[in-house]
Amino acid sequence: MDYRISEPVVGPRHEDILPASVTTAVKVVIVGGFGVGKTTLVGSVSEIRPLTTEEIMTQAGAGVDDIAGVERKNETTVAMDFGRITLSDELVLYVFGTPGQQRFWFLWNGLFEGALGAVVLIDTRRLEDSFDVMGRLEERGVPFIVAINAFPDAPSYPASELREALDIPDGVPVIDCDARERLSSRDGLLTLMRYLHALTTTNPERR
């Protein structure tokens, strides 16, 4: 009897294999309102093929989802996005993007399990969408930074005005970010990691 395998066994791609030198893995979360660029950021920064759960928007969301300002958007994340980026020989970040529509926010409970911190993406055309997001993070005690995503037609404000308008706590970094650009997205994650490190230095209980 011939037991030869007719098709080759396909394993993970070389670039998907976690380097053997990695000793620490950290989970972080990208949050924000609907259409602020979370899926774009995860996709641009991930060194592996990102996992996305985008689906075509249907009439089921009509009258439920607020698409003001993002009327051209025809897909939405319904569960999560996932990517990975290696920051050093020893440290790797697992990056999870949350769904933005409030009807999917119940999924946040699982996504935040074990997360050390979050990046809050903001669209200055729809600042009001950020209040509930940051409120939920503060309720959970999840440290976060704020990243102002670059949209061509979005108004620009000084960081001090945005901090006041959004009531962002003193000490929380507020940075500019272009979610389409890998280096910009990476710098946002590095800012979060530096902030988390500073928090553990000043407050050892967070370690």
From TrEMBL:
Keyword annotations of the record: GTP-binding, Hydrolase, Nucleotide-binding
Domain of life: Bacteria
InterPro entries: Gliding_Motility_GTPase (IPR052705), Gpn (IPR004130), P-loop_NTPase (IPR027417)
A Pfam family recorded for this sequence: ATP_bind_1
Signal sequence region: none
Family, similarity comment: Belongs to the GPN-loop GTPase family.
Protein name according to UniProt: ATP/GTP-binding protein
